[in-house]
Specification:
The chain is an alpha/beta fold. The protein is built from 21 helices and 16 strands. It has helices spanning about 15-25, 35-40, 45-70, 85-95, 105-115, 125-140, 155-165, 190-195, 210-225, 245-255, 270-280, 295-300, 340-355, 360-365, 370-375, 375-395, 410-415, 425-440, 450-460, 470-480, 510-515; strands at about 5-10, 30, 75, 95-100, 145-150, 165-170, 175-180, 200-205, 230-235, 265-270, 290-295, 305-310, 315-320, 325-330, 490-495, 500-505.
């Protein structure tokens, strides 16, 4: 898989400025194609164009594009007409993704008037020349589907491009890693392991449900990349997220001959990634691991942020470690084989991201199941953007990252008491409604927020009430065993409004909690 990112658009759209910022964010080299041409020619673009003419310059542009792309992925700022040639466009689209930066003629003119660079194609009256050039190229520019509004500040535009591409480079935990959303990524897993410096042998960990669907293709990609690859299959389901399963993984590591520099690869949902990550954190005191999530819940939540661990009979994730992966690669096409119930459960986490940090994402979820299911790749990218921003700001959950626990304190308890008959996302959906009712009782949230969240969750086909058969006293006891408590007091993340959550809210009044559970 080639990973070049090409920024394209008319003069004044900010390709060079934004490209430099984007390259830094993604830890990729940045190349300005015009600057590259000036370097190899030893003269300015106007001089090159004056000497060779526009057609001669386009030929030089094509040669430069071919020459500079022979190597590792990079961010490339293209000239405003460099993809007019079909062969240039075909090359760029074959080797990466083209992002078109769009801005109004008024904004482009303002920027160009403040720019001292001479542009031969905009000679004479700038506004008139620009208007003529844009009209001439309109159909060409309109043909690029991946578009980002470039009228904001360059930092924000770079972040929008990251969200549009589903491409992040996380640094906050010390060991940096990429998180990417890639269609048809299964066949590229081996090549991407090489790119991020992972060594073999590789042990692929998957469960009984995912293995027959995708394991062979992933193993083949490892073999093509030159890895000695092994795999181990574990039972599916939260009830197997246990120390017994971990023992099985550690034994498989030994049998596969893994060393400290070797790699564990998790192919599956949150249970698989949590267990694989913890096995990697502890085997030989730490080896590499990568996550290939195949469920919506894992793509938008469990695989990101380096949280690993396993369950005890008393509660979920009571033993664990922060241990970042070397790569997280989500291929949304794997969602096509996911049962509808699992998809709906994953949407609970998506909606949660909307409540805590992105009201626009919440609004998309509030349109209902059919609208959301129609564009799952976009949903994955938007939800990942929320989580990445929070974990980069607070990698070890000392502050704002705790907002991600909204719905989970009650949700984990409901999930446990149900004997895991409720899926994680279903329990979190219930937890969000109950916890928002609590926020209203405490005066943190305004009246009506719980009903708004409840309605949106119901529209996604998710449960919104604690099942009648689950003993409320047992749920309360499970809440008291929650790993987020401090000095004996359970702490909650509770919403104030859409896009704003208060963290570290201590609830000492257990009678009040029991009353809310019984409502």
């Amino acid at each position: 898989m080639s990973g070049h990112i090409f920024l394209y658009g008319p003069s004044g759209s900010g390709k060079t400025t934004v490209g430099s910022i984007l390259g830094e964010k993604l830890a990729l080299p940045f190349l300005d194609l015009d600057a590259y041409i000036e370097t190899i020619c030893g003269e300015s673009i106007p001089a090159v164009m004056a000497g060779r003419g526009q057609e001669g310059f386009r030929e030089l542009e094509a040669q430069a594009l071919c020459a500079c792309l022979d190597g590792r992925p990079q961010v490339v700022a293209l000239g405003g007409g460099s993809l007019l040639r079909e062969e240039n466009r075909a090359l760029a689209e074959a080797l990466g993704q083209v992002v078109f930066l769009e801005a109004s003629p008024r904004v482009l003119a303002q920027r160009l008037q403040a720019d001292s660079h001479h542009r031969p194609l905009l000679a004479g009256d700038l506004v008139t020349s620009l208007d003529s050039l844009l009209k001439e190229r309109q159909s060409h520019y309109d043909s690029f589907p991946l578009r980002v509004n470039a009228e904001g500040n360059p930092e924000a535009v770079a972040e929008e491009i990251q969200c549009a591409l589903g491409y992040y480079h996380l640094r906050a935990m010390g060991a940096p890693y990429d998180a990417r959303v890639c269609a048809n990524g299964l066949e590229s897993y081996g090549d991407l392991l090489r790119q991020c410096g992972c060594e073999g042998p590789v042990l692929l960990v998957s469960d009984e449900q995912v293995t027959p669907l995708y394991a062979d293709r992933v193993i083949e990609s490892f073999n093509r990349a030159g890895y000695q690859a092994h795999f181990v299959v574990i039972p599916a389901g939260e009830e197997h997220k246990s120390v017994e399963t971990l023992m099985r993984l550690w034994q498989a590591c030994l049998e596969a001959g893994l060393e400290r520099g070797s790699t564990l690869a998790a192919l599956g949902g949150g249970v698989v990634s949590d267990l694989t990550g913890f096995a990697a954190a502890t085997y030989m005191r730490g080896c590499n691991w990568v996550a290939f999530p195949t469920t919506l819940l894992s793509m938008v939540d469990a695989s990101l942020g380096g949280k690993t661990g396993f369950d005890l009979p008393q509660g979920k994730n009571l033993v664990g470690a922060f241990y970042p992966p070397r790569l997280v690669l989500s291929d949304p096409q794997t969602l096509s084989t996911l049962p509808q119930r699992e998809l709906r459960a994953g949407l609970a986490e998506v909606l949660k991201h909307g409540v805590i940090a992105d009201p626009d994402l919440f609004a998309i979820c509030a349109r209902g199941w059919e609208a959301v299911a129609a564009d799952l790749p976009q949903i994955v990218r938007l939800a990942q953007a929320v989580k990445v921003k929070l974990i980069e700001a607070d990698p070890y959950e000392k502050g704002p990252r705790a907002a991600l626990n909204f719905g989970h304190t009650i949700g984990h308890a409901v999930e446990l008491v149900s004997g895991y008959r409720l899926h994680h996302g279903e329990a979190v959906a219930i937890g969000m409604v109950v916890e928002t009712r609590l926020a209203e009782k405490l005066g943190i949230a305004g009246s009506g927020l719980a009903e708004e969240i409840r309605t949106a969750l119901a529209g996604l086909g998710l449960p919104v009430e604690i099942p009648a058969g689950l003993p409320r006293a047992d749920i309360l006891r499970a809440v008291q065993a929650d790993k987020k408590k401090s000095k004996g007091t359970v702490k909650f993340a509770l919403p104030e409004k859409l896009g704003s959550v208060h963290t570290g809210i201590e609830i000492a009044d257990l009678e009040q909690m029991l009353q809310i559970l019984e409502e």
